[in-house]
Amino acid sequence: MSLVASTSPRASQKRFVFVLAAIAIVGAGVLGYVATRPKGGPVAVDPNLPPATAEGYLIGKEDAPVKIIEFADFECPACGQWATLTEPDVRARLIRTGLASIRFFDFPLPMHKNTWAASNAAACASDQGKFWEMHDHLFYAQDLWNGEATSSPDKKMKAFAKELGLDEKKFDECFDSQVHYPRIKASGAEAERRGVDQTPTFIIGGQRYPGNVPYDQMKKLVEAELAKLSKSDTSKKGAK
Where does the pLDDT of residue 237 fall: very low under 50, low under 70, confident under 90, or very high at 90 and above? Predict the structure, then answer.
């Protein structure tokens, strides 16, 4: 005798109908989620924006011997991790000691829907001398304004400006006018010109280092550049 019970045609038909009903319910649920989930995708940017020079934002001495260039997206999780966990050590041990400087360039990625608002907020904060304060605030509070956290990033950015003690009227006028969009677009173009294809990416001594570079590696790279500069200076003195 078989250990598997036989199934009558009527029982099979009932089971088939039940399965179809279950599939329909699940399908409806999926469609409902797709219809109501936050909409992602690129942010519309005027292709006719006037050209601007990619300037970046400097922290450290202008004449620091080693110049670190950073390309980052404010909504990028890896950038947020580097900014909150690694950058404090870099600033304390490499920047404030005068060994290096960092020049930050926005590189808004198309999959992040709120990153342009964040870059815009940082640029407007820069007008009031508080770019780095806004930079830090954006990264430390990234989970409060990123794509899944809010549908109104503009309100969040203006709230952050208030928290940082900025002149709200000037900030709002700057933010709403999008006057700094050409600058943001120029920074992204500079990233592409240098072959940057992920964030964060660092350029040190003419070499490109993609990804979340840990402090120990950053320190070694800076020290290697300092050694090259020292050797070059010695050679020049010897030539004289």
Answer: low
- Is residue 128 in some structural domain? yes
Strand pairing category for 100-106 and 66-72: parallel
Half-sphere exposure of 69 (CA within 13 A, CB side): 19
In a domain, 10, yes or no: no
Confidence check: pLDDT of 208 > 90: yes
Cβ-based neighbours of 85, under 8 Å, separated by 6 or more: none
Give domain status of residue 127, yes or no. yes
Look at residue 40 and tell me if it is in a domain: no
Are 195 and 131 in contact, with CB atoms under 8 Å apart? Answer: no
What CATH number did the domain enclosing 191 receive? 3.40.30.10
CA-CA-CA-CA dihedral for 122, 86, 205, 226, to nearest 10 = 120
Predicted TM-score (pTM) of the model is: 0.76
Q: What is the percentage of the chain residues whose pLDDT exceeds 90?
A: 70
Number of domains the chain contains: 1
